[in-house]
Amino acid sequence: MAELSARAAALAPPHAHGAPAAVAAFRAAPEDFQVEEDLGFAPAGAGPHLLLKVRKVDANTAWVARELARYAHCRPHDVGYAGLKDRRAVAVQWFSVPLPRTRVDFSALVSPQFTVLEAHAHNRKLPRGALAANRFRIRLRPAEGSVAQLAAQLAPRLQAIRLQGVPNYFGPQRFGRDGANLTRLEGDVAALHPAERGFVLSAARSVVFNAVLAERVMAGSWGELQSGDLAALDGRGSFFAVAAVDEALRGRAASLQIHPTGPMWGQGEPATQGGVAALEGAVAARYGRECAACTGAGMRQERRSLRLVVHELELAEEPEALLVSFRLAKGSFATAVLRELLVAPAELPDGT
Q1: 294-304: string of b/e by CB count within 10 Å (b at 16+)?
Q2: Catalytic residue numbers?
Q3: C-beta separation of 281 from 208 below 8 A
Q4: Model pLDDT, residue 3
Q5: How much is the pTM?
Q6: What structural domains does the chain harbor?
């Protein structure tokens, strides 16, 4: 088994489709990175809450939530949102606030960093994870050469991703700047502020998953079922045990209907068997501090798909850039797609 440091597993895990040859910038301006939430359901139309569709630009999700709370005259804790969105981006996401006692015109709320596009009555606070997918539109600016040359470089890689997906790594934003959330594990995690502790524990859990996935990528089995796996149905939270791999299961995995899973660490042992369990146990032994933090916090053993299907993946040419668009299931990272497509200029070693 290859030794992979926690920092490498978090910030530079191995590629599944080989090292990308294309070099392009993809976040020169907030407008170059656009994401829109797809809730997967319609507002109820009545109830004690309001669902607010908000467009934010270069703004932190938690900051927007606090501003909405101030305008709605409620506590920041009473504001709901399905998930965090990148700050340096244009993001359209949904928030909920308790229905104000007196009428509030959210369309009149003027801010250079966010705008309320819609407001609908709803029956409950919006909980974390309550969305179906995220749609991305990301502008790629070639570091050298023409837009057409960049498109030609990306074409075979795009086709491979359409057919095989990408490793479902947690992105570097999960681990903080330069992996700072992992460094905080060296201290007393219980003594941290609850919000900061949550980020640190999430990073600990995520790096163990990334390390297991990295082993499967290096072995070439990240998209293939093995005896002893727990397999996930694509786009579903359910999974089932794989006692033996037959042709039917191989076919379903090849067509991206089902995927092997990896551990989201917690109390107890993963329910995998055989060689899969041995691999996960060996990784857990290497990441003893991270696993101990998860179990000590009372987290449960859960599973996450090792493979990410990239839906509606398209590329369009602009005069000075390419626009790549795709849809991802909730909880997955656009950076997992981008890192298989290209290298950003800032990631090149000195002298390149």
Answers
A1: beebebeeebb
A2: 86
A3: no
A4: 62
A5: 0.91
A6: 6-19+158-308 (3.30.2340.10), 41-122 (3.30.2350.20)
